Amino acid sequence: MTESAKQAWSEVGDKFSSFGRRVADRYREADSDEAADSEASQRELQRAAKELIDELSRGFSAIGATIRDEEAKRDLGDAVSAIGDAITATVNEASEGIRSGRTGSSGGSAEGSGSAEGSEGDGGGSGDESR
After folding, report:
1. Residue 94: its pLDDT value, please?
2. Residue 95 and residue 102: Cα distance in Å, rounded?
3. For the segment 80-107, what is each residue's pLDDT rounded down to a tens digit?
């Protein structure tokens, strides 16, 4: 996998990890409040929901303002391209792994329509894709 693809997937993972930690924190807060008064628990959940909505609103506002910035548009294009590179690298590696796992039995797998097409085009194309 290329460095840019690794970085792109790493950033995706970091963003989802950050969001997951925030949800887990809110969940723990809500759980600890259940031991207290039910009404206080409900207020805490409402506060957490409002905070989440406020964060999302700020995020979308920031995205809107950023999209109007030409330099940010270029950065976004680079980021989207990096995601595309990461997906391509991942699919290529998975395809290569599948191909190498089927080399001894390529004649016996007629179930998938893609497997017959893939085995016909495997001549020299797969070596070029990994460069």
Report:
1. 93
2. 11
3. 999 999 999 999 999 998 988 865 444 4
* 7 located within any domain: yes
- Closest C-alpha among 97, 88, 86 to residue 10: 86
Secondary structure percentages of the chain, helix, strand, coil, to 5: 80, 0, 20
d(CA 39, CA 37): 5
Q: Which domain holds residue 82?
A: 3-102
Whether residue 127 lies inside any domain: the answer is: no
User: Rounded distance, CA 102 to CA 33, Å?
Assistant: 55
Alpha helices in 35-69 (DSSP H): 38-67
- Residue 74 in any domain: the answer is yes
Instruction: Please tell me whether residue 109 adopts helix, strand or coil conformation.
Output: coil
User: Domain count of the chain?
Assistant: 1
Q: Is residue 24 part of a domain?
A: yes
Contacts 24+ apart (CB under 8 A), 36-41: none
- pLDDT greater than 70 at residue 5: yes
The residue type at 73: K
Report the predicted TM-score, pTM, of the whole model to 2 decimal places: 0.32
